[in-house]
Design a protein that fits this description.
This protein is mainly beta and 136 residues long. It is 12% helix and 54% strand. The chain is built from two helices and eight strands, in the order αβββαβββββ. An eight-stranded antiparallel β-sheet has the order 3-2-1-8-7-6-5-4. The mean pLDDT is 82.
């Protein structure tokens, strides 16, 4: 009986739950500022490499900068568009858009700010998977 219990404990302990969440480490190298009002701006700057950690789950359809929150229904706040070559994840209010190229791992994060006019901040870089299933 003790052996059977020991075997059952070993089976339960060795059972691994696989998460569908993929963790991406993205090195951002370029930043672009585009503005319309009150001053027209279009400036691209090479920046010192910045690291962004992103969490991707194709089943639940999200790419975020925070780990999965099981209480958030991402489809309520975000749009998800996926093709063979890229994933586009954007807020329904148009404030932030993340575009991930599935072939080479390139990424673009675009944020819209409205402070005395409308300005778009665009960061571009390259991602690599550090945990989870293969995506590119």
């Amino acid at each position: 009986m003790k052996k059977l219990l020991l075997i059952l404990i070993c089976l339960v302990v060795s059972f691994e739950v696989k998460s569908k969440e993929v963790i991406l480490k993205c090195i951002m190298t370029y930043e672009q500022l585009i503005g319309q009002k009150p001053i027209k701006v279009d400036k691209t700057t090479k920046i010192p490499p910045e690291t962004e950690i992103l969490y991707l789950n194709k089943d639940k359809k999200y790419i975020t900068q925070e780990p999965n929150d099981p209480y958030i229904d991402y489809s309520e706040y975000y749009n998800w568009r996926e093709s063979d070559s890229e994933i586009i994840f954007d807020r329904k209010n148009g404030v932030k858009t993340i575009t991930l190229n599935l072939y080479d791992g390139s990424i673009k994060i675009e944020t819209v700010k409205t402070v005395g006019g409308e300005y778009r901040f665009i960061k571009t870089g390259k991602c690599e998977k550090i945990k989870g299933e293969k995506i590119f």
